[in-house]
Each structure stands twice: as C-alpha cells, then as structure tokens.
Amino acid sequence: MANHSCDYNCAGVFDGMKLQLRTIKDVKEGEECTISYVDVINPAKERQAKLEEEYHFTCKCVKCVEEINASGPVDDGSGELELQDCAKVLQLCGPYLKPMDSSSSIPVNHYLLVRVRHRALIAYMDLQEWEKAAEIGQLITEHYR
Ligand SMILES: [Zn+2]
User: What sequence ranges are listed for the domain SET (predicted)?
Assistant: First the structure.
C-alpha cells in the first residue's frame, strides 16, 4: 500500500503478476514513498473532487496548494465538451491533433489539449484507424514526458 500525492515519487509497475513500486524521482532517506490515485494532468480542483468522492480525503499536497493558490479562470471547467460521435470528435479536434509550436495560443501541455487528444485517440481506435491512433498516442506521450 502507498499513500497518495499529486507530487508522487513512485509508480506501480507490473512485472507479470508481481506489482513493483518503483521510484520515478530521487527519494530522500526517510521520505514517504507515494503514488498518485488520480491523473495529475487534471487541474487541482478536479483531482481534489475525485479524491474526495472516491477516497474520502482532501489532498493538501504542495502541488494542490500551489495550483489552487495560482488558479485563474482557466480552471473553471468551462472547456469541458460532451462529445460522443467519433467523426464529430475528429472534426472538432483536427487543429489540435498535430504537434503545436510555441507560437500557439494554447500552452502545449494544457490539460484540455491532452483531453482532446485522449478523446481523439479513443475515436481513432473505435474507427480502427490504428496508424492515426498511434500518431496521437505519440503526441500524448510527449505531454507526460
Ligand atoms: Zn494534491
């Protein structure tokens, strides 16, 4: 078992049937090993809501505190889209399914951009367009790097 932190220092990795806890950054002697129970690319308010709903605690990690103190109107969730039709998803997402340069008005690691790409990935998989799904998968991987 490992406690949660949005600024986690470990990740669980399966080796066959064996679950290993591996550090993903330097851990000082005596420092608690933590994992994340939620997708940390989401804004702090969404992470906290999910943690409260599913795990019944309020995360007060450094990452949450810093994000909430710095949060502005971009975290209000107004960018949430209800998209169900694959073709519509891909039509709407088109401009965001390519690598973006630094001149873009959208920060390259904005969580809504990652969400759009996740939905496009699922849409391409539903359509069995595997090469396009793989391209989107590569873009998403860059966010997490
Ligand atoms: Zn947190």
Answer: 1-38
**Do 59 and 90 belong together in one domain?**
no
pTM of the model: 0.58
Helix (H) or strand (E) run with residue 136 in it: helix 130-144
CA of 54 to the centre of ligand 1 (A): 14
**CA 144–ligand 1 middle distance (angstroms):** 17
Residues 58 and 109 in one domain: no
Query: Helices 62-70 and 44-55 sit at what angle, rounded to 10 degrees?
Result: 130
Tokens of 113: 């951009």
Domain extent for 105: 86-144
Whether residue 81 lies inside any domain: the answer is no
**68 and 113 co-located in one domain:** no
CA 79 to ligand 1 centroid distance, Å: 22
Same domain, 19 and 56: yes
DSSP bridge partners of 119: none
What is the Å distance from ligand 1's center to 21 Cα?
A: 20
CATH number of the domain within which 12 lies: 2.170.270.10
Distance CA 109, CA 114 (A): 7
Ordered per-residue pLDDT tens for the chain, 145 residues: 899 999 999 999 999 999 999 999 999 999 999 999 998 888 899 899 999 999 999 999 999 999 888 875 544 444 444 445 676 767 777 878 888 776 777 777 777 888 888 888 888 888 888 999 999 999 888 877 7
